Target: Thiol-disulfide oxidoreductase
Amino acid sequence: MTSLPDIQQLQGRPVVFYDGTCGFCQGSVQVVLKHNKRQHLYFAALQSGVLEALVPKAQIPDPLPDSILFYENGKLYAESEAALRIAGHLDFPLSILSIFRIIPLSFRNFVYRLVAKNRYRIAGRTESCMLPSPEQRARFVA
Model:
């Protein structure tokens, strides 16, 4: 069985933080896993405590946004910026989605928040995180 990486092993690696109780978020993680053939993205549920252990406290918004977060090169991104930066790490053709970063951030985040606000209606709520396959498990942080 593959072991989970620890916080030390994540230094300098891109990490996707997602809502572990959101079906929409878990589905999004599945898409990223499937289309990140380089397997260099790591994942942690917002509820895991990894965010607080990895990211400098000054960068963590209080309260945490109702959002996916992406930590890359020492910087934490939220909402549409996080989603589009993650898209840039995906295989072609999904990587093309990152071009939407040319749209003004305020409009992108308006659309993002609209989806985020309705995500439980779109895909439901779960009481626990998804169980990754043994191959995927090495990319998740507890």
